[in-house]
Design brief:
Strand content: under 5%
Number of strands: 6
Number of domains: 3
Length: 505
Amino acid sequence: MNILPFQYWLHRYSTSLGRADFTAGLTTAVMLIPQAMAYALLAGLPPYVGLYAAAVGPFLYALYGSSSSLSVGPTATASLLAAGVLNRMQLPLEQLLPAAALLAIGVGAVQVAMGVLSFGSIARFLPYPVMGGFVSAAALIIGVNQLDLILGLELPRSSKVHLIVWSALKSLPQCNLWSVLLSLPSIVMLVLFKRLSARFPRALFVVVLGALIVWLFELPVACIGELPKGLPTPQFPTQSLELWIDLVLGALTIALVAFIEVVSIGERLRKIDDPPLKPNRELVAMGVSNMGAGLFQGYPVAAGFSRSAVNNGAGARTPLAGVVTSCVIVLVLVFLSGLIGSIPKAVLGAIIVTAVLRLIDLKEPIFLWKHARIELWIFGTSFIGTLFMGLQQGLIGGAGVAALLMLRYRQMPLELECSVPNTIAVRGPVHYLNMHRITELLPKISAKDVFVQGLDQVDSTAYKELLKRQETFDRQNRKLHLEGDFLAKAASQKHPQKSQSKTQK
């Protein structure tokens, strides 16, 4: 593993690449600034903590990471997980901030250790139904946790939806009408602007508009308040051994979930001329980014899908776009901290709600019902466990059910045969634990048309991974042909009319 992977793209860097990276970095920064503040509030932290993490994370990832598309910084999922860890401790603010920084350093240390020890393959031990149920439930929890900002109420933060809703209902008569009148139109505008243009800086627009309305009409709503100017000096948070122990399990959970998000997003957005995504390298890159965020008094960072998609769509060609993003955020902290303080919290709550709507996956349970009903138990356990028992409990429960269901394959090993040119013949069930054997073979075949035959027993995770590889082949102007009973059944249920017409012919 290269110590500094930026050597791969630095030798071919040019003015045209620099212009593309500058545009993408600036565009992403415009999106990240309001998101970082909103997600910090979600974690129960002051908004400037999110800006600290957003200023440091992308810069360090640019030095150690390999993906040109990934936008590193505060995310909804990582913020909610951090909130779950920190809320349990019931710390005052002067102890909460060092604890959040220490959590980021702990997450980073876990990720670096996993990368150095080549634990990158651990991502495949959490199949899609586990992550789908977990993320969908987490998105609901995130959205419900914004009721205090949207309604202008003082509500306790919790990872259990029913407790938050009950508290909100009891306090509803005391809600701030002006907060409601700011947040609801903001949600509507954010949704409409997203449909009109994916690259329009809708979050920045509603933030500026909301701050302007509050200033013009002197509305009695909660605002961010005065921010510290510039970046803090790096320092290691000194905390007791007892606090370290309390943070360990949370750091492990955040490290794993953040890594899975990074690999998933990076593979999805990888360009043809990008180097292959190496999980162990990405672990080290994310680990260094988290440790840096913690040293600069931030909190855990990960890769955000919507930001990464914007970064990719805006033309990012190398990880240097992340350096531009970091520089813009530092300039904002130095010169515009006074203006940021007038942003109403209700608008930040609206940004979070619209950001997590896309995380609620309604298609996954429908897909499982049609193609792999037994895996609905995995999705349901993960979803219900996360929603009512807690984030870590839901994730562990879903993974446990997935492991139990894997026992049905114990007498059916997977065999692969490559005797026919450009063809992989499959014998046996393909599932999330052995899928890597096929995906590792595919890059070794350089033919324009590649065939994978015998896909008769395929679980949902393996099926989706195969479809991703088809997309990769399509971007390379090649064709990956998937053949087998399961694929034929899935295609017929997806396009019944086409399948029927082919049969008649």
